[in-house]
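Annotators were shown the component list below and the corresponding predicted structure, then asked to write short factual statements about the assembly.
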Amino acid sequence: MSAQAAAILQASPVRLTPQPASAPNEVLVLCDRADLAGAGAYLDSRGATLATMVGLDLTPLGEDYALEYVYSLPAFDEFIRLRADIPRDDPEYPSVTPLLPAAQWYEREAKDLLGIIPVGHPDPRRLVLHDAWPRGYHPLRKEISATEAPPLANRRFDYFEVQGEGIYELPVGPIHAGIIEPGHFRFSNAGELILHLDARLFYTHRGVEKIVEGKSFEDALFTVERTCGVCTVSHAVSFCSAVERMARAELSPAATWLRTLLLELERLYNHVGDIGNICAGAGFHLGSSQGAILKERLQRLNETLTGHRFLMGVVGLGGLRYDLEPGVLTSSLETLREIRRDFEAYMGAVLSSGSFVGRITGPGHVSAETALALAGTGVAARASGVATDYRQEHPHLAYPRLMMKRQVDSTGDVGARLLVRAREALDSFDAAAELIDSLPSGTAVAAMPPVPRGASALGYSESPRGANVHWLMADGNSRVYRLRIRSASFANWPLVTRAVVENMVPDFPLINKSFELCYACCDR
Amino acid sequence: MGLIRFLLTKALSKPVTTAYPAEVTLPQRGIRGTPVLVAERCQLTAACEAACPTGAIQVDRGPAGVGSWHIDYGRCIFCGVCIQACPDKAIVASERFELAVRQRGQASTTYRLGAGHDGS
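Structure shown to annotators:
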């Protein structure tokens, strides 16, 4: 624990008892369930942000339920894991959400999946399990089997209704016209203006966290990597890093470099593709088709380098699953240079279209206060003036050496999110080239030391959409006891519902694409 | 680059799309396509079956080196673990990427090995 973190804990008005944790930049702090909110508000006042929250069923170990709120202290690269026991015969606690709105979805999720009730939560509706699921059925409890299919009932959904003269509701989805994932959006409008958006997601909830329980870390990695299609490297790196931190395993220099390279390649094809998609949202076909061509070239490069267009199956426990061929890496430098040059020409052309720039300037505004209060992450937060980036706040892998800039824009609209992506893409081109140029010799493949029984640790990485934070606990046989995947999309979806307020309905596709969040890794 | 010049450059350049499927379209070199068996190398160790995370591979060993190797591409996630696990280097990643079939059962392949079989 850093001296600064220790000082913050010492000065707390709420009694916080630090315990040793598995990783050097984590502190486990026990507190009473009644103090979760007070302690959270205090940590928030000292610059901490909610990184994830996990509900635990520890009954097979002879304990009760538990909740752990994980706060990131960005100034000192530290995580404070605030844990409270929740008695199994009285699974309630005072909700943290009234003081920290960022906790809203986490608490609703723990209520659905574990039956731990946040008393005083301002929106106690269901979140992950839709209304059809049986009442009192909490699938993340250990007594429930992952393969059992509960009986579903036909029940109406609850919606927030805006009432008044001339107000109408517009339902959109869950099935959409494009090749996108399912989500139901219920707009309340006055004329063209959106007054409120109720987003019902979690249609792609597959129970990933339940499926991996009891699996070996090796087997779980295949599932975790496929949590979504576009942040696979980030999920794999976060998961592996949690296992490695529990085992106190060190990565080889080559593995460190190559994992960083894979993360930057993932950011590249996502950012470039997302910029093309924003053009599509504005009906700017030249921008969207040329963006798609650039993305395709980057994905073909991925395939040449790793055998997989989405970079799956490369990251492994202890490093990589196999070594990449140095010759192929070196020859990709020229390809990267060409795509970078064409991307610059593309951005110049896109931004010289007055009608496109006019369209992306203004809509979907998110203020810095909103992004901070909801603990937004990644591009969504940085484009609202919140300088959060795990690559600098919690330096991992080769990032301390790369010294990448935090690309921040305080405008907060669709245009800002596009510009932040464009600047970051250029940085990623340069970072990828530097990583290949300075690749340390030696293998990236290593065996893993054993993981201590009952250990738990965080793993994290900055994905194209923001920080992917994995919370992992091991059982006694190097298997998963509990995994909580906090994807960047999970953190950022509530921002989308704020961004559309007071915008026109026809701008929703554009605003939604400017966040380009993933449904699958939000829903899990 | 200005928008008009960019548009003209793109409009005057060759199309990037191909006449697939009329024209042969090759995947990138290095693609991790469907795992296929090099039958003459297979010693039926079943190391691949044990290593496969999705249970896509089934190895049946009969007497005197006769047996079969079965893979269900409907379960395969193309992770390449079987390729690494095989002590005889009998599995390779092919460049095959066209996997659509009309019926679920057609998504699998069986190789018969040993006396009288040549691995088809």
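Statements collected:
1. Chain A has two domains: 3-119, 208-523.
2. Chain A touches chain B through 27 residues (CB under 8 Å).
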